[in-house]
Design brief:
globular, membrane, transmembrane helix, transmembrane
């Protein structure tokens, strides 16, 4: 996969979010969907199947462009705060562990299908600047968490250190999204939570990136 292809791949979650926002505006304007009814339906799904689906999608996020933020919010909507938080944290850590294993044990050609050389080089610069705390910070930034997980495996960072610092960033992020999702009453609120979270984390990413580039 070329670097340019990798960049386009990483834009997929943003395209998906834009499509959801546009669809929401159209359906709202035409009054085609009962948005409160959708939330009621989500909360009526069998918790076991909801948990299995959300967990599976969170874990495969390392290989597929699955938007993890909406999944974590929906975990709170469908399962409530305690169970939703536990599922979101375990699923997110599972994704991080899978990315680490991919980077450490997979053949180079397969690693390059997920993370480009340019991205690995940039992740090393971030790691030198922030140390292991970088793993926790990256957990809340869309698409960056997967890149960091793979690069940590490639660099043969201690798995225990990687998971410990990843956990420190995972818990507060998941808690905020799951709590917001558990309080949401309409699809509008869920979409706005996801959009606000995406804008905040992307803004954080660009601020940190400028800081890293300015560092000696």
């Amino acid at each position: 996969m070329s670097y340019e292809t990798g960049v386009r791949w990483k834009w997929i979650p943003f395209v998906v979010l834009a499509f959801v926002l546009l669809s929401w505006l159209v359906f709202e304007a035409l009054d085609l969907i009962d948005f409160e009814g959708v939330v009621t339906w989500v909360r009526g799904i069998d918790p076991v199947w909801a948990a299995v689906a959300i967990f599976a999608l969170l874990v495969v996020d390392v290989l597929l462009p699955v938007p993890s933020t909406p999944l974590i919010v929906l975990a709170g909507t469908a399962l409530g705060l305690p169970l939703g938080l536990a599922l979101a944290v375990i699923g997110s850590l599972g994704s991080s562990a899978a990315g680490y294993a991919l980077g450490r044990f997979a053949r180079p050609w397969l690693v390059r299908k997920v993370v480009t050389i340019d991205e690995l080089t940039e992740m090393r610069r971030w790691g030198r600047q922030f140390g292991p705390w970088f793993f926790g910070v990256a957990r809340g930034i869309p698409m960056m968490a997967e890149t960091v997980s793979v690069s940590a495996g490639v660099s043969r960072v201690s798995f225990r250190t990687f998971m410990l610092f990843t956990l420190t960033g995972t818990v507060p992020i998941c808690a905020a999204y799951v709590f917001a999702g558990s309080q949401a009453e309409t699809v509008e609120e869920i979409v706005m939570i996801c959009a606000a979270g995406l804008l905040l984390t992307v803004g954080l990413f660009y601020l940190l990136r400028r800081f890293v580039k300015a560092a000696p």
